[in-house]
Structures are given as C-alpha cells and as structure tokens.
Amino acid sequence: MSKLFDTISVGRYTLQNRLAMAPMTRSRAQPDGTPGELTAEYYSQRAGVGLIVTEGTQPSEDGQGYLFTPGIHTDAHVAGWKKVTDAVHAKGARIFFQLMHAGRMSHPDNTPHHRQGVAPSAIAPGAGMFTMTGMQDIPVPRALSTDEVRQTVADFRLAARRAIDAGADGVELHGANAYLIQQFFAPSANTRTDAYGGSIANRARFAIEAVRAVAEEIGADRTAIRLSPGITLWGIDEGTDGPDLYRYLVAELDKLDLAYLHVMHQGDEALLADIRKLWRGTLVLNRPGRSREQVGSDVASGLAEVESYGQMALANPDFVERLKAGAPMNEADRASYFGGGAQGYTDYPALAASVVQAA
Known about the structure:
eight-stranded parallel β-barrel; alpha/beta; two-stranded antiparallel sheet; TIM Barrel
C-alpha cells in the first residue's frame, strides 16, 4: 500500500499521493446552482487525497437533471466555486470539476427553464426522478438536432473555461452512469441516423468532439473523461458491440494526450485489460464496493496509476491518514447522501490526533 502515498505526475500537475476522491452528487447547491456555504468546507476536509473530482456539475441549463446540483455556466457559479478551489488548494490537493450533462435523466421541474430534457433520441429512460413534489416519471426527452449536438459541444467548451476561471485545475467530462455522453454510446438510447448514430465511430463521435473541444480550450493536460463500460443503469444497453465501442473510443482518446482516463470498472476484466493496453497515459480506476483490504492493489499491480474512492472518502474526511494508520473507517450514512445540510456532509468525525500521532 505504501506506493499509494508516493507523488505522481498527472497532466501538468504533481499529486501528493495516488488517491482520488471520486465524483459524488450531494444535491446541496443553492437553487440557482451556486455551491452552498458548506461546500468549500466539505471538499477541503477531504483534500488529503492527491486529486478531488467534484460532483457532477452542469455545463448549461439543459444539462441539469437533479435538484440542487451545481452548475458552472454563470458568473455566480464561478464565484461560488472559487471559494471551493481556494480551500482545496490551501490543503495541497488538486481539484478537477466533473462536467455532467444529464441528458434524458432530467425532469422539467428540476431545471431553471423548466423545459423538456434533451437526448440523442426521443426515448424515455423508464425511470423516476425526485422533484420538489415527490417522485415523478421522467418524460420522453426531445431529440437534439445535429446543430444542437454541436452547440452542446460548445457548451462543454465554455463550461471548461469557466471552471478554470473558478480556479479548477482541470475538468473531467462525465461519460458514464447513463448520462448524456453515454446515452450516445447506447443503441437503446441512440437511434439517430445522422453522423452521431449508427456505427461505433458515429456513436463515439460526440464524446470525442466534446473532449477535443475542452482540450483545445484549456489544454489537454487539464482535460479528462470518466467512462463506465457495460453499465446498465436507467435503460442503457450498449449492445453486443459495446466493448468494441470502448476499444475504439479509448484508442481515439489516447491520441489526445489527456491528463487521465477515469474508469468505473463493472467487471469485464478482458475489456479492462484492453483499455489498459490502449491507454498509454494515467489511468484512474474506480471499483465500486472495493474492500479496505483491496485498497492499493491496482496501483501495486501497475493496472492503474491512481485509485479513486467514493463512500470511503465521503465518510472519512481524513481518509489518507486512516489508511496510513491502519485505523478503522467511518461508515457512510446513506440517508444523508442527497440534500440537507451539515449532517452526513461535513460532520463525519476525524481520527483523534493522538491516534494519528501514535501511528
């Protein structure tokens, strides 16, 4: 495990260790999408890791899916996030904003403009969405025109620039978990007949164009993407050629010299091995449900350069110190994951100073 605590170069930065905080939606932003008062404290508490990837942050009004999620497309958003980045940098960590366009995983009641969600095709996900009036079925989205797809690429570019203005060290595009970018990958969500649908190359086109636009705007060494090959959330079915789509996509992304590739691993070991071969840069690997005993194994084996953690980083603001000390971990409180205030957000206890010193 000791290799986890070594520094590593990622993009244009040197991380203080090889641990990352995975992106986790917390739904604690103000109604206009500006980070709330506790957000700077929340992230700075967890800045013992080398890299923080923020919760999904919408690049436009159309990109919002859930209640009280943050944005990075207005001046107020930039000002709010600047407090967060300053607090994280004061602790020595790096912070990448995750740019998340929810696509069809949205409800009009949750967005500033109250419009129908947008997606590759007019196909509903067959899922519910929590709104201020309770759970509602997600309605059929509106299919983006070809010009609107290109405008959405431009939205990602502008959001990336605003993230840098807010002090972010870089951005990670959310290409996972059944949101817009992954919706383009899946034939169950994408039945387009233009340049963004049909073949593997066409279904991967939107992701590649969005990543390339962001890299052109802020630098490839400050640009990353997260993928979740094989995930089947909310009506996503990538089809029998899904693994080949990811082989093609990763090979194309590898040409861009990005800061890192963040993979949420779903169990296809052969595909993961192929991704590792195709991706010559930094691989950040997230294995949901990874046990305490498995921490560090992927870095030790050389499969990944960085390991990312969600629940353990959420529930343990001193995650790195606990690992070094061999100390027990707090358990995450699922009831407080989304919405609310300090409970389950900034009130998780840290180790007593005496325990850390004894280690």
